[in-house]
Amino acid sequence: MRFNSRFPLVSRQRGFLNPNIAKFIAFTVLGLAIIGALIIAYALIFINPRLPSLDVITDYRPKVPLRIYSADNVLLGEFGEEKRSLVKLDAIPANLKNAVLAIEDYRFYQHGGIDYIGIARALATDIIKGHASQGASTITMQVARNVFLTKEKTVSRKLYEVLLANKIEATLSKDQILEVYMNQIYLGQRAFGFAAAARTYFGKDIKDITLAQAAMLAGLPKAPSAYNPIVNPKRAHIRQQYILQRMLDLEYITQAQYDAAVKEDIQVRAPGNQYNVHAEYVNEMVRQMVYAQYKEDTYTHGITVTTTINAADQKAAYDAVRKGVMDYDRRHGYRGPEETIELPSGDDDRSQAIDDAMDDHPDNDDILAAVVVSADPKQIQAVIRSGDKITLSGDTLKFVAAALSPKAKKEIRIAPGAVIRVMQDAKKNWQIVQLPEVEATLVSVTPQNGAIRALVGGFDFTQNNFNHVTQAWRQPGSTFKPFIYSAALEKGFAPASIINDAPVSYPAGNGQPNWEPKDDDPPAGPMSMRTALQKSVNLVAIRTLDAIGVKYAQDFITSHFGFDVDKVPPYLPMALGAGQTTPLQLASAYAIFANGGYKINPYLITQIADARGKVLSKADPLVVGNNAPRAIDERNSYVMTSLLQSVAQRGTGARSNSLKRTDLAGKTGTTNDAMDGWFAGYQRTLTTVVWMGYDQPKTLGSKEFGAQLALPIWVDYMGAALKGVPQFDMPAPAGIKFVDGEPYYDNFSPGDGFVASLGTEGGGVVDALSNFFGWSKNPNSETPAPPASSTGAPASPAQVDRDKLYQGH
Prior knowledge:
It is found in: Cell inner membrane. In the N-terminal section; belongs to the glycosyltransferase 51 family. In the C-terminal section; belongs to the transpeptidase family. The chain is an alpha+beta fold. Helix 3 runs parallel beside helix 9, helix 5 packs across helix 6 and helix 10 runs antiparallel to helix 11. The protein starts with 18 loop residues before the first helix and ends in a 36-residue tail after the last helix.
């Protein structure tokens, strides 16, 4: 056989490798060894001495937010850039620890900080796939990176990470390392650590999460934004299912546990709603008070505040206010959709348009935004934020019947593209509602020490953060009358005093027409003080104030009950609540009636502690029977409670009879033109004030009164708050005597200084009172009428109380 000389035959060498290839490999290995040695030498000489101290871990002090708790240790809220809750490893559920190990580092307890088997496996996978697809960072390395290093991908940073991991492993036990990891890893939504994440995503304490929830949380460390169950629920679910499978493969869970977990319907909490109790106004009050003292440390030093709030009472207050406002809003008709958008014909474009609309109309707790996709007078179909389609029909459409009519005006018409509000009733049926424009507030105080048990500053904090409990100065209407009568008791009046409900006229001065206050009902003639307060009769209250003198009344009320002198006008409309007060100030005043006549100061914070539990400050409240000073005579408190119990049982507050208690006392109030609706009342252990109105005052409606605006909220709340509280029958104090069942001061009893009647002789103020005290018979001798305005009307209009609906109204 001949071969072309130009192509000489290359002889084959015996053996596995060509010598040239063998040399190449040998030099490569040698080179790598040299490089490795140099890297190790560099690390030992230059990096190792510069490794940071592990004090950051061994004395772990991360930025911990201000945390606010109720009196019964329920977390109400947090303030800080980072949400953190430090927990011991043994307080973390085994399912959560195993889920994290399964997905992040299942050989954690076998390796020494660097998992060389894991590195080899990752390299092999990367070579096969042709790109980097797997990481090999252990939990220890992640701790080193997250606590000490940046996330830049450089060789020097990786060297630091490896050396730090070795140093951590040499210093801390495996359990200590895992505890640091579980507490400091970032998991999205400003949540650091799994305890904070459990609260953020599920509204639960870490000890209460399920296996399925644990697996979803374990999926977050790799990419919190990608696997965030709020932002990307589908991706979060896929990763959760993978982790559950890993746990099953590693025999961390049984097949039965796996089967149950993969089917669990996980409910993720909406952003900003990760607490079980709505106390947003309380939290903001606390934040402001703490910041005033601790400044920026408030948000990073782990300050813990314990409040006076009772979690169950707070929830009852929130629910009662929401229900009362929604009931009022429903009585006044549908105002129309919030917006109407164009609905594209394509499914993808339509879904995007609906999502965009949802972004502009966030849900309000249980009041959800929905976009109508079809509508006629018999049925509405709409899509809610979750993407689910809901159907509304039947009686629920009565509320919006006019808006479904073909003749409906454009601004109120419900048509495809309309953004509406829906919520589920107690039976889980959908109904159409709307976000209310009216506001309401409730504050509840313990009369014996001023501890605020519940506080709701408005319908919704995110919608309006103005705190009406402390900031809204409004006219109290007839809720102020009890203070007039309290002052009158010290001048000889009693519940049995007969006072004439008859027309009166007072000169306005400067040639202006006389001021002639009126009631809604025609004058009824002579009646007892008890009956007058029950029925909230204006003319009787004005006659009484006129008789005792406005200056005396102003001094008595402001000095004994804590009202501001400059907000209680020294003229006759004071009897009708023409001054100004806040709901909290009014509650403090009514608490004096409730506690037997002692001054208390409402307070919200019981103690402030640092991150280590050291108490920094503690409340020192005024306590009845200890250090609380007397505000009014005990007899006064007793008689006023008797009168106000009549109001609650047989007067304008009779709706409270639904609670089937006889120890409730209170007073309704409705200001002129129904600008404000009030109910202020109490039981021996709890004083509660409710207000409803508009921020920019306008009428609540010609047929609206405090008895149907505020009282239903009060009843709903007190029914829950007083559940299990025994009936209290106040014993008569010393100095009280009874005649025909009515209480009297023993020094103002019939025939002995008691003012038996007022205004019953000739319609004037010539009666037993003026005879006994020798006062002038001129009704205007010390009682100025309201100053006249340029229009001829009183400059501070007589706030004629309109609260005449009682016995169930």
